[in-house]
Amino acid sequence: MKKISLFIALITCALAIFAQSNFNEDGIRLYHTPSQEELDWAKSKGYDTIRMTPTSPPSGQIRPIAEWEPAEAVLIRYPLGFPVSFVQKLAEYIKVITVVTQSNLSAAQSSYTSGGVNMSNCEFLIANSNSYWTRDYGPWFMAIDNSRVSMFDFTYNRPRPQDNLVNGILASHLSMVNDYTYFVSPLDLTGGNYMNDGIKQAASSTVTLTENSWWGNEQQIRDHFHDYLGIEQYHFREDPVSTSSSYLQHIDCWAKFLGPDKILVDSVAPSNATYYPKFEAVANYFRSQISSYGTPFKVYRVFAPGAPSSSPLTPYTNSLILNNKVFVPTGGNTYDAAALQVYQQAMPGYTIVPVAQLASEPWLNTDALHCRTHEIADQCMLYVKHQPKSGEIANTGVVNFTAEIYSYCNNTIYPDSVIVYLKENGGAYQPYNMENTGGNTWEVNITGLPAGVVAYYIFAADASGRRECHPYIGGADPHRFTLTGDAPKLPAISLDKTNSSVTSEGNEVVKDYITISNIGEASLTFDVADIDFDKMLTIEPATGTVQAGDSQILTLSYDFKTLAKNKEFSGTFNLKSNDPLKPVISISLSASLIEVPVLSLDKTTSSVTSTGHEVMEDQITISNLGKADLTFEIIDLNFDKMLTVSPLNGIIGADSTQILTLSYDFSNVEKGDYLGSFKLLSNDPNHAETEISLFAYQTYNGISAPNMSAIYIYPNPATKSINIYFNNNNPAKAYIYNILGVQLQEKALANGTTAVDIKELPSGIYFIKIENCVYKFVKQ
User: Fold this and answer.
1) What is the dihedral of CA 184, 190, 191, 194, to 10 degrees?
2) Does the annotation count 380 as an active-site position?
3) How confident is the model at residue 607, as a pLDDT?
4) Which of 325, 328, 481, 493 is 20 to 30 A away from residue 257, measured at CA?
5) What is d(CA 611, CA 584) in angstroms, rounded to the nearest whole number?
6) Within this chain, do residues 121 and 21 fall inside the same structural domain, yes or no?
7) Positions in the chain short of pLDDT 70
8) Is residue 234 part of a domain?
9) CA nearest 682: which of 607, 601, 618, 603?
10) CB of 325 closer than 8 Å to CB of 291
């Protein structure tokens, strides 16, 4: 907040209840340039020595905010210095903040209402004030670290204590009262004698130096503006009308920045021998200076013959730029039309609005619209930072556009909204989406542009609804440059993938492949570089050339043979090429050695035959061929209670085995055949479930039948295959017939179990003939 030594104690009352607009608290009439009466009064009160208590300068990257940048409001004061009709125009599209005393509030509201002002767009700042020159005592604004808008306050270079207090009250109204949004300078300053380009330059008349000689020399003052406002180049010029202390010496009376590379300067007739050389010297000075865009300033001239005098009325540089409108004070004479035309020429795309004077408070050549208004910077502005291209640029086939996009209130920037709009040789604008390349930086490369003039602007939008361009007005007044020469043919790289990931379950070489395609019109050369990975990896070929329309396969070989257990690797390599749009592509790499169990069984069928009442055993060997523990479990045992299996579960170490014992107890079973199965579950990912087929046959006790054949067919029904158990050393054949008696298959049988593939057979009933016996089975 403002801190003013002795100010509050000295100001005991506010007596600004006068028909006219500008009086101090003791009723002395105030003029834009202080009268001797006011100066004597201020000295008698001690006001001439009272100054603001300064704060330390802000820290971080500082940028001055220009008049034409996004504004959230305009600051005026009531009683007004212009017609209510002008307030009505403002409130149509922007918030109007009016400084008014409590006693005048009702009158202000009544005046606005009767004048058709949109009251929903009006706010009233209750504060005492001496004058309506809000430009002179109002705040300056700067951005810090491109993340927040801050206020710059100062000692008003007029002995007007009420005016001097307004900024502190306004800071509270705008919630800019903390130590990182409100900063106070010790210097004596006035806003009418200050303009900046929104980047790093500013200009004032030399009265800023003379009025602050008590504080420091010119270099110290320049350093001060750099520290508080980020101004790197300050143009101090002598006022072309007069450098007398009795003259106003405000730069807005004869010059005005219209953009970062544009300045408007008054001109007078060559016949005016006294002032013509001075105005021309100012214009020529700025023509010789380089703007923050890196190009010479574009100097526009407006004929203002009244500039060095009181008549005619030509206060044209004392205009207000407010977002996309320019309000120009007009004098009601023959020079107005030409002045408005100059603005339209210099600022295409802006709406140029003439503003007539208030009869009771007329314009002066040293006091008009700019002096009586002040824009309030948008605290949540969307800021597009870009260094424009200009002049002649050799056509390499690729044009790069880079910008930084900032939301000062951290609103989300829509990724698909950041666009370069570009037109070639007077054609239509074409959009090119920019990509975020990290942080606040956005970039796009455009290829194939023809020789000639290129016009462009950058657009962005955020979640708050803000939509901004660079330059501010967008396509109506774009940046321009000239490409010289035809665009060469270029290669264009395309990859089927930008990562390689492999796994291995053992000591082996695993290969992966990346396909490089050239979709351009010229030969593509590439080079594998900067490999950051274990020595297990080799990439071939390491370099190469791919003709237009062709492709090349990169082979990545990962050798796991010498790795320790449970190894994981990650890394990258760069694929460099002569594609100007993608000169370097980073490829991510990962490799993992996964140790798993591997199940192996010596057989998947158990078959026994008994000729007596006894216990017969069969065995199945489970082997673990992998490098991790194998777990197993027996489930779904579907067989007669005569069978036991042991063990039913277990763990088998790497490279180890486990024997399953199947015990068939024929002690209490009848003669006949027994069929069934069980499932063997394991943690081998490739053999999670294995079905084991079971068969047992009980013959007549004590009867030897060496010439009899025991034949069993299982499973039945079946889906993919059937097993034929043939207990005879003599060879035989099995014939499969369908229900119509047509032979479909023939299979030789040997002693033991023979598998027969039936998966190609349609579902239905079939017959098998073996040794003059016929058996039925069902195919599901």
Assistant:
1) -100
2) no
3) 84
4) 481
5) 80
6) yes
7) 1-20, 564-566, 699-710
8) yes
9) 601
10) no
The pLDDT score that the predictor gives to residue 309 is: 95
Complete DSSP assignment for 555-601: EEEEE-TT--TT-EEEEEEEEEES-SS-SEEEEEEEEEE-----EEE
If asked whether residues 225 and 126 sit together in one domain, one would say: yes
Q: Is the peptide bond before 57 cis (omega within 30 degrees of 0)?
A: no
The residue range of the domain holding 565 is 493-593
List the CATH number of the domain containing 664. 2.60.40.10
Token couple for 774: 């016929």
CATH number, domain of 241, equals: 3.75.10.10
Active-site option among 253, 371, 469, 773: 371
Question: b/e per residue, 264-273, with b = 16+ CB within 10 A?
Answer: bbbbbeeebe
Q: Select from 345, 377, 409 the last residue of a domain.
A: 377
Shared domain check, 388 and 477: yes
Q: What is the pLDDT of residue 8?
A: 28
Beta-strand relationship, 584-593 and 499-504: parallel
Distances in Å between the alpha carbon of 474 and those of 378, 422, 468, 529, 638?
A: 18, 11, 8, 43, 82
At which residue do the structure tokens 């007007």 appear? Answer: 160
376 neighbors 174 (Cβ within 8 angstroms) = yes
Q: What backbone phi and psi angles, to 5 degrees, belong to 266?
A: -60, 155
Q: How many CB atoms lie within 10 A of CB 595?
A: 15
Task: Decide which of 420, 450, 484 is a domain's last residue.
Answer: 484
Task: For residue 166, give the H/E element and its range.
Answer: helix 161-173
Provide the pLDDT for residue 706. 38
Q: Provide long-range contacts, Cβ within 8 A and 24+ apart, for 710-716.
A: 710/609, 710/673, 711/770, 711/771, 711/773, 711/775, 712/673, 712/675, 713/768, 713/775, 713/777, 714/675, 715/675, 715/677, 716/675, 716/777, 716/778
- State both tokens at 177: 């009262």
Query: pTM (2 decimals)?
Result: 0.74
3-state SS, residue 372: helix
User: What's the pLDDT score for residue 671?
Assistant: 79
Indicate whether 307 and 242 sit together in one domain.
Answer: yes
Task: Give the count of domains, the chain.
Answer: 5
Write down the pLDDT at residue 565.
58
The answer to whether residues 673 and 656 belong to one domain is yes
Residue 708: per-residue pLDDT: 41
Whether residue 647 is preceded by a cis peptide bond, meaning omega within 30 degrees of 0, is yes
Residue in 251, 155, 253 with CA at minimum distance from that of residue 203: 251
Quick count: other Cβ atoms within 10 Å of Cβ 284? 12
Q: Is the domain of 285 the same as that of 411?
A: no
Query: Where residue 737 sits, what CATH number does that domain have?
Result: 2.60.40.3080
